[in-house]
Amino acid sequence: MDGAKIPVLDFSGEHLDRERGGECWELLCGKVREACETHGCFLLMYDKIPTSLREDMLVAMKALFDLPEETKSKYQNPKPYRSYQGKCPVVPLHESFGIDDATRLEAAQEFTQLMWPQGNPAFSEILNSMSSKLLKLNFTILEMIFESFRMEKKNYDALVRDSTSIFRIMKYKVPPRKDENLGLVAHTDKNALTVLCQNDVQGLEVMTKEGRWEHVVVPREAFVVIVGDALKAWSNGRLVAVKHRVVMKADRERYSFGLFSMPKEGAMIEVPRELVDKEHPLLYRPFKFADYFSYFVSNISDDALEIYAGV
Ligand SMILES: O=C(O)CCC(=O)C(=O)O
Ligand SMILES: [Fe+2]
């Protein structure tokens, strides 16, 4: 299996400075769109999130997963993909938490308080700071995609108003047997856009258009950006919601975290008129994201989006 040829984009330094480098910004918007159309994902260098904060986050999450099972299990949430998950028979190596709106300090504090009733202000600060920075980055990428499609600014502003986020924290244990090493089952993300960050233990794989699994070698300082179903539908299928999974080959634990931006409860996804033409006939009817999400949760299927919203 070859390493995937995923583009590496650089948002560091002044690349994102629109005032000084208008051309650079436009060029980058085009590259983002191309990566999302061709691969549905890309690797990203971005220096506005300090390495020290990443390191702090990785240390803090190790402490979180090291808490007793009994404590971690206290985190229950009726919404799917939030509650503490551990010891799932399908993916026994995987453990995770999903925190809604960790970008709100009170939400980060509430989660922290549950895990450390005696208090752990450093954890809630790191969680809040990292999720806020990742959400900002997530929105910047969405803005670039909107600009590359020549959408009016008001469309992007409406998207931001109608968006919410989940911050997911994940751990993958070392497989006890080499042939039982699936960390996370193959899936497309259902949300709009995901920005992931990991420790130095590789394991992410993406499926190419030809249907081959390829591993993604994520450089130490890089982020991984993944297009989800909501953005695929909005773009009338122009952007690819890439299928991905995690396979554990290393003999060290893998930690990852990510910010998943997604439409708010009640928000509609509707293909803009500008993205429908002769070569791109309408593929998806307007739908409420929350309804699609519920449909997926009760009818888990690889083709959920096509079945639910395809015209
Ligand atoms: O851990 C990773 O790198 C991938 C996680 C992922 O794909 C997900 O949570 O949807
Ligand atoms: Fe995913």
UniProtKB/TrEMBL annotation:
Keywords: Dioxygenase, Iron, Metal-binding, Oxidoreductase. It comes from the Eukaryota. InterPro entries: DIOX_N (IPR026992), IPNS-like_FE2OG_OXY (IPR044861), IPNS-like_sf (IPR027443), Iron_ascorbate_oxido_reductase (IPR050231), Oxoglu/Fe-dep_dioxygenase_dom (IPR005123). Residues 162-263 form the Fe2OG dioxygenase domain. Pfam families: 2OG-FeII_Oxy, DIOX_N. Signal peptide: none annotated. GO terms for molecular function: 2-oxoglutarate-dependent dioxygenase activity; metal ion binding. Belongs to the iron/ascorbate-dependent oxidoreductase family. 2-oxoglutarate-dependent dioxygenase essential for auxin catabolism and maintenance of auxin homeostasis in reproductive organs. Catalyzes the irreversible oxidation of indole-3-acetic acid (IAA) to the biologically inactive 2-oxoindole-3-acetic acid (OxIAA). This is 2-oxoglutarate-dependent dioxygenase DAO.
